Amino acid sequence: MAVTDEAIAGIKQMIVSGEIGPGDRLPPEKELSEKLGLSRSSLREAVKALEVIRVLDVRRGDGTYVTSLEPHLLLEAMSFVVDLHQDDSILEIFAVRRMLEPQATALAAREASDDDVADIRSLLDSLGTDPDIDELIAHDIDFHNRVARSAGNAYLASLLESLSGRTVRARVWRAITEGGSVERTIGEHHAILDAVANRDPNLASALMTAHVAGVEEWVRRSVQ
């Protein structure tokens, strides 16, 4: 194991063991390097790496703190990777979404509050009759994120959000708008929400499966 990896593993173990937790300040660099039995330069590299993936928050002149460790923070790096993927890799991302998102939607049909449903309904109703591509992308991201969040599982919602970066959505919506299927796609959003509102997890899951698979097929044709 590389020395920097050892330092990362050491800090991770301190967090996992509960020695330090969300919001806590790390010991001073000299003290921590001695505790881990590693050089201060290796420790600095480890801290930089953990800062990038939002495990640590380096505050200049104050110290280094453990972040909240909330799922949306820790999965930000995955969103970055997803946005960099080429079109053929997007199909693999859609395959993962097709497995996870219907289950999240079924869970939403069981767990979403009336306020959650009303909030998503308001989002659907707010989309104008002639939206441009940026409005469509924002709407699509917001709709899927709100449905996932209404399921009440923060880790699942954050994972799905990380698989649906803005760049990916832009590519998808360009394919859809060029094919003239905007109305059908928005109609599918309404049908999915109706199933959630009617507390029908089987129908909600089936509709989301068909919805994601349909968009996946648009992408498949566009990359051939």
From TrEMBL:
Give the transmembrane ranges. Answer: none
**Name recorded for this polypeptide:** FadR family transcriptional regulator
| InterPro entries found in the cross-reference section | GntR_C, TF_FadR/GntR_C, Tscrpt_reg_HTH_GntR, WH-like_DNA-bd_sf, WH_DNA-bd_sf
Fetch the PROSITE patterns from UniProt. HTH_GNTR
Q: Please indicate which superkingdom the organism of origin belongs to.
A: Bacteria
Recite the UniProt keywords alphabetically: DNA-binding, Transcription, Transcription regulation
The record's section on Gene3D superfamilies has: GntR ligand-binding domain-like (1.20.120.530), Winged helix-like DNA-binding domain superfamily/Winged helix DNA-binding domain (1.10.10.10)
* Organism listed in the record: Microbacterium stercoris
The record places domain HTH gntR-type at 1-69
Q: Which Gene Ontology MF annotations are present?
A: DNA binding; DNA-binding transcription factor activity
The record ties this protein, via SMART domains, to: FCD, HTH_GNTR
